[in-house]
Design a protein that fits this description.
about 140 residues; mainly alpha
Length: about 140
């Protein structure tokens, strides 16, 4: 007779963990969560597989999760594509708006540069060599 590593009460807890499981279900992840719930350092997946009721519950839950996932994909398929198409259109509009805004600001900068260039050329004792001098070093 093989030793009982998990009591009957703990088996109920193990099955509750399976019932509440969401996301990808693997034996390794399941074993880690069971060990944590039972307050043990570790429980091997082989130990869990040794209990027929746990193995059956695991397989049923895995199948249920797979079916739910495929149903979500089937029902959301067209909706997801529509959402992505709308989001794509909105992003394209944003890009177009930002490009137009950039072009307008660029025109202002060019105009401002020309204005400064003209005004500097009209100032006495200001020449290109003076304008091209580096900025003074920052003093702390």
């Amino acid at each position: 007779m093989k030793p009982k590593l998990i009591s009957e009460k703990e088996l109920d807890l193990v099955e509750d963990i399976l019932k509440k499981w969401s996301g990808k279900l693997t034996w390794d992840k399941f074993a880690v969560r069971v060990a944590s719930a039972l307050g043990k350092d570790s429980v091997s997946k082989f130990t869990l597989m040794g209990y027929p009721e746990v193995k059956q519950a695991f397989n049923r839950r895995k199948q249920t999760l797979k079916e739910v996932k495929s149903q979500v994909i089937e029902t959301m398929g067209d909706v997801t594509i529509d959402i992505l198409i709308n989001e794509n259109a909105e992003l394209r509009n944003q890009i177009h708006h930002l490009e137009e805004e950039f072009k307008a600001k660029e025109r202002l900068w060019v105009e401002q540069y020309r204005r400064w260039q003209y005004n500097l050329s009209m100032m006495p004792n200001v020449d290109l060599s003076t304008l091209n001098q580096p900025l003074p070093a920052k003093q702390n």
